[in-house]
Every structure is written in C-alpha cells, then in structure tokens.
C-alpha cells in the first residue's frame, strides 16, 4: 500500500504497536475483544475503542468499530490534526478533550513517520515530566 501516490508505505497496526512499545515506561493492555491500550505511568496515550454512539460512519450509519484515540498536548494540536488534509477526526463527544480519533481502516493513510510523531507526541502529553525530559534529552544527543 502506498500513501498519497508516493512510494512511502502506509502505517499498519503492527507499526503502531512497535512505535508505542519502544517508548520508555509503556505498558500495553489488551481487552477481551483484542483491543489494545498503551499507557505510561497509568495514563492511556493511545487506545482502541469499540463501537460507540458518538462515532457513526457517515456512509453506512453504523457505529464505527475500529476507532483509535491519540492524546495530544493541547487543543491547538488537536485542531491542527483534525483540520489537516488527513484521516484524523473528532466527534462532539470529544469536544474540549485533548484527543483525536483515527479509524484503523484509515491507518494506511498515515505514513510511518507521521504515526511515529503522533504516537510520540501522545506519549509526551501523558508521560511524567521527568521521564519526558529524559527521553527528549536522549533524543537530542548526537548519534
């Protein structure tokens, strides 16, 4: 699969798992129906949601059963992702909350690099400050 007509492959659920699990202090939990939640210090930063009445497919009218939630640092970041020409969206239920939504089926519209940025930003938004500072300091060290 390519993204936007480029040769860059789109992201997959396995990529999401790999990116999230590489971050410090991450724990993954799995619901009985196989949905994953990624947490740092007991706070979810990426989670899979089951069907809810607030997320309905506009084409079919059916509840979406493949929604991922990514935390963001602030509502400005949320607006930027939602208003960009991409697959991120929100629903009225999420008004005022620092989270953006993405359907699993649309994950391929996101490049691996974009996914890594969104997941890392979500982690940074929820990680303890000291852990986040240590991570950022290591990331800035020359290789």
Word description of this protein:
With 143 residues, the chain is an alpha+beta fold. It has helices spanning 13-22, 75-83, 112-126, 129-140, and strands at 26-30, 36-40, 43-49, 67-71, 99-103. A 5-stranded antiparallel sheet has the order 1-2-3-4-5. Strand 1 and strand 2 form a beta hairpin. Helix 1 packs across helix 3 (112-126).
Quick take:
The chain is an alpha+beta fold. 32% of the residues lie in helices and 19% in strands.
**What can be said about the biggest beta sheet?**
5 strands, antiparallel
SS-derived structural category? alpha+beta
Order of helices and strands: HEEEEHEHH
Strand content: 15-25%
Low-confidence stretches: 1-5
Average pLDDT figure:
88
By DSSP, the count of extended strands is 5
In helices, the fraction of residues equals 25-40%
Looking across the biggest beta sheet, what order are the strands in? 1-2-3-4-5
Give the count of helical stretches. Answer: 4
Work out the radius of gyration.
15 Å
What characteristic shape results from the CA principal axes? Answer: globular
Distance between the termini: 31 Å
């Amino acid at each position: 699969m390519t993204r936007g007509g480029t040769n860059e492959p789109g992201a997959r659920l396995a990529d999401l798992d790999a990116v999230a699990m590489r971050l410090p202090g991450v724990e993954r939990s799995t619901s009985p129906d196989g949905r994953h939640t990624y947490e740092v210090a007991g706070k979810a930063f990426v989670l899979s949601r089951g069907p809810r009445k607030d997320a309905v497919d506009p084409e079919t009218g059916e509840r979406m059963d493949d929604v991922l939630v990514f935390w963001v640092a602030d509502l400005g970041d949320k607006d930027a992702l939602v208003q960009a020409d991409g697959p991120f969206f929100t629903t009225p239920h999420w008004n005022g909350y620092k989270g953006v939504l993405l359907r699993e089926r649309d994950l391929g519209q996101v490049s691996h690099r974009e996914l890594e940025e969104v997941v890392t930003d979500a982690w940074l938004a929820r990680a303890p400050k000291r852990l986040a500072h240590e991570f950022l300091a290591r990331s800035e060290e020359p290789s």
